[in-house]
Amino acid sequence: MNQEQNNPVETYYPTYNAVQKATEYFCIKTGESKSLTLEKKAVWHWILSRYQFFSGQGKGFFDNQEDIALNSGVSLSTVRRFLKELEEMGYVNRTMTQKYGGHKSNSYEILYNLVLRKGEQPRRLPKRKKKVLDKPSQAYQDYLNDESDLPF
Q1: C-alpha–C-alpha distance, residues 67 and 87, integer Å
Q2: In this structure, is the dihedral angle defined by the CA atoms of residues 32, 33, 39 and 45, taken in order, positive or negative?
Q3: Cα separation, 117 vs 57, whole angstroms
Q4: 1, CA 20 to 30 Å: which among 7, 12, 17, 68?
Q5: Is pTM beyond 0.70 here?
């Protein structure tokens, strides 16, 4: 075995099918809907997983936004915008606390699970009307034989 095979398995956090299939989520206060992008889904899954972990130990969720961005694979600005959006929509409560040496830290409390709208059901593929030929088309053959843009 090489060194890479001996490394422990990376930390796993769950993703929820309902969130993965959703295309929008709704504001608890106004009913307004917002787009639920892949980036937002990644951030939501990460902060939900971390919140559940820390609250299960009786602790607060204090991950900094840089760590959330790094672990969910999105930019720091995406994390900041989404957390602000979640706070404004009533899903998350943020508390800023003063830490050692004057540093400030945010703690987050998830108040509600996302109220989701599921996307459209996938449609069946259209039936093929024409029979697919086994040989390439003439245009494709011409493309393969064209040597005009070759570097040599």
Answers
A1: 19
A2: positive
A3: 32
A4: 12
A5: no
